[in-house]
Amino acid sequence: MLAAAPHTGYIHEPFNIGIKIGVTHNLSKYFFQYVCKENAGLYELALDRALHYKYPLAHNLSKLTTVLDAAKIIRDQGLFLLHYIKNDTPIVKDPIALFSAEWLSATFDMNVLVMIRHPAAFCASLKIKDWTFDFNEFLGQPLLMRAYLGKFEPEISEAAEKGKNLIEQSILLWNCIHHTISIYQKKHPEWLFMRHEDLSIDPVNQFRSIYEKLGLEFTNQSRSKIIKSSSAHNPTELKKRSNSVRRSDFLRNSKENIYNWKNRLSQGEIDLIKEKTSELSVLYYAENEW
Prior knowledge:
Low-confidence stretches: 239-245
Strand content: 5-15%
Structural class: mainly alpha
Helix content: 40-55%
Number of strands: 4
Shape: globular
Order of helices and strands: EHHHEHEHHHHHEHHHHHH
CATH class of the largest domain: Alpha Beta
CATH topology of the largest domain: Rossmann fold
């Protein structure tokens, strides 16, 4: 939605190691890679190239196996070249870059927008997609554990060694993420922090405000794209799920989508999530939002 502003270029999840044909040369070793001064040399050049729209063509061609791969490479190379010629402002969307936000901001003079999500909605989203998380991804990063996640080390170690069910995993992951967000809020009042729910209730006005704060031009085209993606005419759920991604997958009735977690979770799961996230969730959500 931010890249709907004119003179911008969208850069999709450079830290996501699950993407086969991406915008960097295998930037990360871990999911939720933590980059800081101590290890920046491993990542800075790759990020700098992506931010200047230097597409890793040869690298992606070496991974090409299907016609869809070839189509994606042609499309992305073309878009990067166009954004490079036009000198567009890069818009990087990457939730997996959360723990590297301070380094990204300091190194590349990035404006940072952090999204906050209701813990039940977060857990329900992982449940319906059956997305599990290996907490060795955190333990394998001593710098990350030292910087942000030390208080969770016993729980993280137990989850990595013995495993947890999907809801328990989701709870721990939400706590790790939002504990870090709470630290950012204290250290970086100049950053933008937005609740997903607030954007969903009033997307046009909320995005207009974000555009203004980030110095982006809010045009009629921007407004139309936001409305198309969030209007009441859209479904509240995907009717059919598959491994392929279509543009229609991102169209939602945003106001109704807020409450999908009430249908996706059992009451027992909701009670457990509320109990186990209460220390942090009270910073962002009132009792009547459960």
